[in-house]
Specification:
Shape: globular
Order of helices and strands: EHEHEHEHHEHEEHEEEHEEHEHH
Bound molecules: nicotinamide-adenine-dinucleotide, uridine-5'-diphosphate
Largest sheet: 7 strands, parallel
Strand content: 15-25%
Radius of gyration: 19 Å
Helix content: 40-55%
Number of strands: 13
Structural class: alpha/beta
Length: about 350
């Protein structure tokens, strides 16, 4: 069976490609490398022994999508391609709407034209309304996003839902990721942020490697046990396996389904720092600074639906996430560009 993976060279896409190949699927990638490196494909090959088929192109280019669907019998599409930097989306909202929604619309159009009926979409916990009470379940209120990136996920879900309903025989999974971190245990693929990392784990890794002096912790006056923000961190390999489970699910279920992918456990920023220090035996200097605008105090998922309906559960813990993220960072101090 062949799977088309948009954005397959990126952080989550590359880990998912590995698990797809491990499961015996043939993988076709479309990526324009706007936020990734071609070298991640060599690494996928090093891990699995199989080089994925690559189309270096923008997903918004419907002629390339038609070419792909013409040349390959694609059973299911996993749509990772998108821009994801929250701050940048505030500064350049139109770029985000154009890229993230344009690629989703082009993909749905091409799927419709070529009778491809299965789609898995990378959505995010950021679609939950700021007034929703954690743990978030798939029925929790959504909307009221605090930045254009979040809205692209909210509208992306809606576009796909409407397209699927109009077709009637599509099988669609909208996967809302919590906080993906960590790396493949080989240390060959991992997260490679460009510039100053926005997210906690890559920032900690760069402090550990000496590339940054200290971590700024954004607020210690939240209503949480130690005052710092709480998130549901999920190992990227568990997340990748969630996509494999979604393919199985879509082969038996028509219509659209929403699943939260997280561990169901929330950890604070300080717990993350302490765990990283203990597991890797490295000190992480930090300073408490003001809150980051738009941040929630607490975000974690209810896992009932992903466990009961999708039949998937995360198995790796915070220790694994910290160990594997550092292993990747140590082996690739400058990410893929150092190769
Ligand atoms: P990433 O930036 O590492 O990967 C995205 C990939 O898509 C990159 O390889 C990039 O080059 C490619 N891409 C972007 N726009 C494209 C286009 N128009 N045409 C072709 N390729 C394009 O990001 P990631 O962390 O792997 O995230 C994958 C998906 O999951 C994204 O849609 C992201 O919004 C979503 N998501 C990520 C997180 C997270 O914390 N990493 C959380 C929730 C949801
Ligand atoms: N955070 C922090 N310093 C950083 C980056 C993040 O204190 O340099 C905190 C942030 O305020 C939040 C948690 O770490 O409480 C996770 O942030 P991240 O950006 O990784 O994920 P998101 O906020 O998007 O869930």
């Amino acid at each position: 069976m062949k799977i088309l993976v948009t954005g397959g060279a990126g952080f989550i896409g590359s880990h998912t490609c590995v698990e797809l190949v491990n499961r015996g699927y043939e993988v076709v990638i479309i990526d324009n490398f706007v936020n990734s490196s071609k070298r991640s494909l060599d690494r996928i090959c090093e891990i699995t022994g199989v080089m994925p088929i690559l189309y270096e192109a923008d997903v918004r280019d419907e002629s390339v999508l038609s070419e792909i669907f013409g040349e390959h019998e694609i059973d299911c599409v996993i749509h990772f391609a998108g821009l994801k930097a929250v701050g940048e989306s505030v500064a350049m909202p139109l770029r985000y709407y154009e890229n993230n929604l344009g690629s989703t619309i082009a993909l749905c159009n091409a799927m419709k034209r070529n009778s491809v009926k299965k789609l898995i979409f990378s959505s995010s916990a950021t679609v939950y309304a700021s007034g929703a009470e954690p743990p978030f379940s798939e029925g929790s209120p959504t909307g009221g996003c605090t930045n254009p990136y979040g809205w692209t996920k909210y509208f992306g879900e809606q576009i796909i839902r409407d397209a699927a309903r109009a077709e009637g025989d599509w099988s669609v999974a909208l996967l809302r990721y919590f906080n993906p971190v960590g790396a493949h245990k080989s240390g060959l693929i991992g997260e490679d942020p460009q510039g100053i990392p926005n997210n906690l784990m890559p920032f900690i890794c760069q402090v550990a490697s000496g590339r940054r002096e200290k971590l700024n912790i954004f607020g210690n006056d939240y209503p949480t046990p130690d005052g710092t923000g709480v998130r549901d961190y999920i190992h990227v390999v568990d997340l990748a396996l969630g996509h494999v489970a979604a393919i199985d699910y879509l082969s038996k279920n028509v219509g659209e389904s929403v699943f939260n992918l997280g561990t169901g456990k929330g950890y604070s920023v300080l717990e993350m720092v302490k765990t990283f220090e203990r597991v890797n035996d490295i000190k992480i200097p930090y300073e408490i600074v003001g809150r980051r605008p738009g941040d929630l105090a607490v975000s974690f998922t209810n896992t009932d639906r992903s466990a009961g309906v999708l039949g998937w559960k995360a198995t790796l813990g915070l220790d694994d996430m910290c160990r594997d993220a550092w292993n990747w960072q140590k082996k690739n101090p400058n990410g893929y560009s150092g190769l």
